[in-house]
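Exam review. A common question shows you a sequence with its structure tokens and asks you to describe the fold in words. Practice with the pair below. Do the first one on your own.
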Amino acid sequence: MENTNIIELKHVTKQFQDNGFIAVNDFNLEVKRGEFVTFLGPSGCGKTTTLRMIAGFDIPTSGEILLNGKDISKLPPYERPINTVFQRYALFPHMDIYQNIAFGLKQKKTPKDQIDRKVKKVLSLVDLEGFEERSVATLSGGQQQRIAIARALVNEPEILLLDEPLGALDLKMRQEMQIELKDMHDKLGITFIYVTHDQEEALTMSDKIVVMSEGHIQQIGTPEDIYNEPKNAFVADFIGESNIFSGIMTGKMKARFCGGEFDCVDDVPEGTHITAVVRPEDVEITKPEDGMITGTVTSVIFKGIHYEIAVQSGKNEMEIRSVRAPKVGEKVGMRIEPDGIHIMIAEDHTNRFLVDINEDYRLAYNGQLLDASLTKLIKGSRREADGRVVDAAGDVIDIARTKIEASIQPEDIKMTDNAEEGLVQGNISNLIYQGSHYLYVIHTDLEQDFAVYDEYLWNMGDRVGLIMPVEKMKFSMKKAK
């Protein structure tokens, strides 16, 4: 039975009706009985919404949630064998510990002797025997968290959902509770589904990690898979520290990036544009003459068990972890073994968006006219004396059925902190450092994301305008169906 699926999510989408926001988009996942699965991602990525749909607090807009093979998508929470522990523990302050834990059992009219036995059992499990008559107000944050878990476990759920339950604890207590939660999971053998934005938490506790961004699954795998074999630059950047470089394959298992040519273990066709990921611990500092590439040390920070070192190599910066520290300003060489380089085919970050054709047959976007001629886009077309545009056959262009798609590259967009200067406005929702520049994702007011390259560091959430020169755009015509 251990290998059977207890929960399956099939093409689950959640769109909120009040603002049209799609929080979760085409989510597919299988959770095996007894697994510890973690949803990992930044704030707003959809992980808590997914958890709430499993719990029954939110209903999917489309798709199915199966429990033991039966669709429970529209089943209310109290009819699901699932309990949830939240970051805010929601304990009843006017009740003692025993009453808090027993509350759910009393609601079910469970016999008193069974309640006594079950409460004592879960108090033992969370290492709080003898606390039955204590007031909630006398407990530390870690103890309150244990009581919240005990209250969920006493109902003997098939699945325990945990929504950032350690978020309110200090670092030391959080690390202790990570170990205790994993130990509880091993003892109980029930399925845990856990939500966090803390990468260390996910790597420490999980059997399976689901990395999410902007409502989509980016990668599913074991902690080892996620760390060592990231599927894209977002995962590589989000899970631990990474050096991420743009490059190209120059031969069989040979890649050029960061100003050097390196042997690698990924057999990607020659000439392919790639993204190379190198973990800081996989870079060896050498004498300049012994390095595959060279650079100048710009920063050395002692971190207790290692040094974090930044080396500038041309336009690229390499982050290195080492037990030996060079001096700032020193010239060094750097070596990377083939298995320390992870190659991914470069993602296409071309920005594509539909522009409007107004009644004067002029192009516009976000209410602003673009200095681009419709007659140049449509071969053989011309403007008549009355101002209408006709095609090569002399038929008037049907602007209601004609769609124009514009595209622009990330390096051709400029960000400005004076948002109103931009063709479109939005907020920075993600950023990834790629060695010589940052890749920014801007979530615009039009609910479309734009990718932008910039060498300067902006902050997450910054409000910006996007300056997009028309001469850098390419246009193509699409006929609406």
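Now try the second one, then compare your answer with the model answer below.
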Amino acid sequence: MRVIAGEKRHLLLKTLDDLSIRPTTDKIKETLFNMIQFDILGKSFLDLFAGSGAIGIEALSRGAKSATFVDNNDRAIKVIKENLEHTGLSDRASVIKGDASLSLENLSRKNEVYDIVFMDPPYDKGLYLPVFERLAKSNLINNDTILILEVGLKDDAIGVTDMGFKEIKVKKYKSNKHIFFKKA
């Protein structure tokens, strides 16, 4: 896995050897960032269920002003920090070990509004629902925030629109998809 574009392009990133963590492939990552390329420069990025941190690091490499990484796996946190150090992007990043949903409560105390929120939870467990529920009630997002959810191909993210979000775009791949939301 590598950084696709931007100031750190071509740098290789470490991954986790844990079978329960599936990194977003370079091809899917490139497609995703081609879709949001004009929304990143100078923006704040929140990477939930961050895994190796590859998505948030890609955002930083492409000009995001900051990125916050959240994961509850000790090994993932270690790999994220190593990847940030390797790419020289640590100064624009913060890393939080904790549950994605519960960490949002602590983040909201910092009065930061995120421009882009990316979440890639384990598939087929509905772990994104409490995250969207907290985001809907928080000051972490506004009407312009882009929320991107990576889910399995068969997941329709039922319930998210009931929390005050509207689906604005869906990009399907062979085995998964990205669903884009904004506040309704």
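Model answer, second protein: The longest helix spans residues 74-87. Strands lie at 44-48, 66-71, 93-97, 116-119, 146-152, 165-172, 176-183. Full marks require stating both points clearly.
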